[in-house]
Specification:
The chain is of the alpha/beta class and 486 residues long. Helices cover 14% and strands 14% of the residues.
Length: 486
């Protein structure tokens, strides 16, 4: 009989436990995918913003409690959840599903400021009437856990998704201390870039980082060295052979020379080379031909005074070449003849005094159009056949020293492009005399120019009449041109 009573008592105790009278539910095991995410997150370097805005780091809570410092006044802002719910990032080891209607939901109308009191409930469930004002007790379960439900997975709010994405998981970067003072920045976890700023003091320091550190991946989307005091020659030995980049940006430094084959280590990947705002005096342009995939070459704001001619630079893929704000004083013949896909050529703000024959010749030009910016130079004359090979062009000659627009030079360009041409010449000391008859007397020709000012007449082109320029001869080649079909 005594044995039977003991058995009955044991059964009653077991029933009481399962009914929620005794110990709470055991903590759930983290899903395999979540365990993997947490493990990988340990490798992530958090940015300062990762824990701002009221977010609580996982190590900052114990048993799912929300300390007052993790929110404003210990409150969970209503804007950070869907209907006053407690976001999963606010606890450690215990998530409160955002849309769970049984076992953790806080109805929007039942909360009082979203405060989290410290009372307990049975079984970890939080029915609307179980707490005062629908508040969620952190000690409701062992570890503060609430079993998830299908609704909780489907009903995640956009704010909760945002809080998760602030931590970027990326296994492409080495440990931060290994590449100091540079940084490795992840882009959506699929690519990364290496950036170095003013704290980088020597070129040797940069070389050591690129050649001696064990990087997890061999290819990175971008290398950026910006705003340093580095003053050295850019050469292939600086990079080593371990890493490749699609873009190299060495801007706002004091580099003074680009050596032979300086970027050859990146010859299979390099698309953008940006060397703006340095102290470059010499660039070995012919060796740029090592880069068959280079699309953009930026050399603005340097001290370059010479570019070789006669197709010394051959880059079949180059679309953008900017050498503005330098000290160029002459363009050699066929300087750009080896750039068949060029779309933008910026030579503005130099000291070019004239355009010599074939200076801007690009035979077999295959790009749909070409913009040539020669504004703010000292161009006083343009030789015959200075432009050729281009099928569609926008020629910017503003703010130069041109006094005339010779027909023998510009008409062949109008005809070669079959009317796909615009020439800007405003801001020149133009002397509109009978030499302008080929423009003034033919409206078809005139439309290819901007409405420039004739300073000697104080009139704009559209207002100039034949008699204003001293009369025009009846003979001469003043017919229109055949235009491209639209």
């Amino acid at each position: 009989m005594t044995f039977c009573k003991l058995q009955l008592a044991f059964l009653l105790v077991m029933l009481a436990i399962h009914a929620g009278w005794g110990d709470p539910l055991p903590p759930r095991r983290m899903a395999a995918s979540e365990e993997n995410r947490v493990t990988r997150a340990k490798m992530v370097v958090r940015s300062p913003s990762a824990t701002s805005g009221g977010q609580v780091p996982p190590s900052s809570t114990s048993g799912g409690q929300v300390p007052p410092s993790s929110t404003s006044g210990g409150q969970v802002p209503s804007s950070s959840t869907s209907g006053g719910q407690v976001p999963p990032s606010s606890t450690s080891g215990g998530q409160v599903p955002p849309s769970s209607t049984s076992g953790g939901q806080v109805p929007p109308s039942s909360t009082s400021g979203g405060q989290v009191p410290s009372s307990s409930t049975s079984g970890g469930q939080v029915p609307p009437s179980a707490t005062s004002g629908g508040q969620v007790p952190p000690s409701a379960t062992s570890g503060g856990q609430v079993p998830p439900s299908a609704a909780s997975v489907q009903g995640r709010s956009s704010s909760e998704k945002a809080s998760r994405t602030e931590i970027i998981i990326c296994n492409l970067c080495p440990l931060p201390e290994e590449i100091l003072p540079c940084k490795c920045v992840c882009n959506n976890g699929t690519s990364a870039e290496l950036t170095c700023g003013p704290d980088l003091l020597t070129c040797t320091e940069l070389t050591d980082i690129l050649t001696m550190v064990s990087f997890p991946a061999p290819h990175y989307i971008r290398l950026r060295v910006d705003g340093t005091q580095l003053q050295c020659k850019i050469e292939a030995e600086m990079w080593g052979a371990a890493l490749t980049f699609e873009e190299v940006h060495l801007v706002n430094n004091y580099f003074d020379m680009v050596d032979n084959h300086a970027f050859f280590p990146f010859h299979t990947t390099l698309k953008v080379l940006n060397l703006e705002k340095n102290a470059l005096r010499f660039v070995n342009f012919p060796t740029m031909s090592d880069q068959p995939f280079l699309e953009t070459l930026l050399l603005s704001d340097n001290e370059i005074d010479f570019m070789p001619g006669y197709s010394a630079m051959e880059l079949d893929a180059l679309r953008v070449l900017m050498v503005d704000r330098n000290k160029l004083c002459r363009l050699q013949p066929n300087t750009f003849a080896g750039l068949p896909r060029l779309e933008l050529l910026d030579l503005s703000h130099n000291a070019i005094p004239k355009l010599e024959e074939e200076a801007l010749r690009i035979p077999d030009h295959a790009a749909p159009h070409l913009l040539v910016n020669l504004s703010s130079n000292s161009i006083a004359s343009i030789e015959k056949n200075a432009f050729s090979g281009v099928q569609s062009a926008w020629l910017d000659l503003r703010r130069n020293a041109l006094e005339t627009l010779p027909e023998v030079v510009l008409r062949p360009l109008v005809e070669e492009t079959r009317g796909a041409l615009h020439i800007s010449v405003d801001g020149n000391p133009l002397n509109c005399d009978p030499d302008f008859c080929w423009i003034v007397k033919n409206q078809t020709i005139a439309k290819y120019f901007d409405n420039f000012l004739c300073p000697n007449l104080n009139k704009y082109l559209n207002d100039v009449k034949v008699e204003d320029v001293g009369g025009c001869p009846s003979n001469g080649k003043l017919s229109g041109v055949t235009t491209r079909p639209s």
